[in-house]
Amino acid sequence: MGQQQKSVVDMSGMILDRDCWRAYLGGFAEYAPDYFFTFGQRLSLSAGIDPLEFAAVAERDPETALDLLLASEFFDFDLDAHAARLRADGVRRQVIHSSMRLLPGGGMVNDRIAEFGAKYPDLLVPWGSVNLADPRAAIAELHRCVGELGMKGVSVTHFLDVADPLSEGADEFYSEVEALGVPLWVHNGHNLSRRVPVDWCCWRQLDVIASRHPDLVLIAGHGGWPWVLETIALCQRHPNVYLEFSTHRPRHMARSGSGWEPLFAHGASTVRHKILFGSVEWVHGMTVGELVAEFGGLDVSPRVLDAWLHDNGARLLGLD
């Protein structure tokens, strides 16, 4: 990375306090247990717990496993310390994603994430989350998040909701997002939940959504992997489709056979202006700064890195 590397715009941050973690992971335990086991074992490493112990407890009683995990000091959350670290890492803005789950003491995760954003409006950009299993409720929550809580975007995870991405109700929801003029982040690509097919919402569905709603800004979350080439094609085809590659570690992406070859080929040329950096730090136990530094070691030009790590996100958020 060149010495003049700009500050960073992180389009996929996830910062949760202990109550939010309980709601977030509890949702996976209830609706997508495959993810609960996978995420729980990954978080066990950070929490100083034997992943095999967590898995054994989770097999018997997911709620007890969640208690075991959340008892760790790892889940102590200090918003001020997080903000200070982001600034030290050169982060200009971090989009913080949410969950539509209920908090243990009342209210929703959306409310808590909005509070985080309100405390640091010049750094944190809160986006709401909805459950498309009930499109009418999703539309109501969308308007609450944007109109009442001041959130600047919204995200959906169709596989978790077991919601058809192309249903009539979902289409009405997309129309509402389009009318509000806020971006929609979509969990795109494969999923680990055996309740739905692996391609429940991938490039094919996103193509239909983008065609029906040309003014809707769509962000293909997690890059659409393993269908990266097809997702790149959507970025070429639709003016308002973007690719965001959070949860994938740079050095792994650069390996031959990773499936990310199209990103380094076309993301450096025809769709350079459509690629967005996202972190979700806890997935690899790496900070934004560490992930950005790892990108600096790859064979990517400073001009392209500037676009991926800052310029495209800044433009999408209306910063420049």
Automatic annotation (TrEMBL):
It comes from the Bacteria. GO terms for molecular function: carboxy-lyase activity; hydrolase activity. InterPro entries: ACMSD, Amidohydro-rel, Metal_Hydrolase. It holds the Pfam family Amidohydro_2. SUPFAM superfamilies: Metallo-dependent hydrolases (SSF51556). This is Uncharacterized protein. It comes from Prauserella marina.
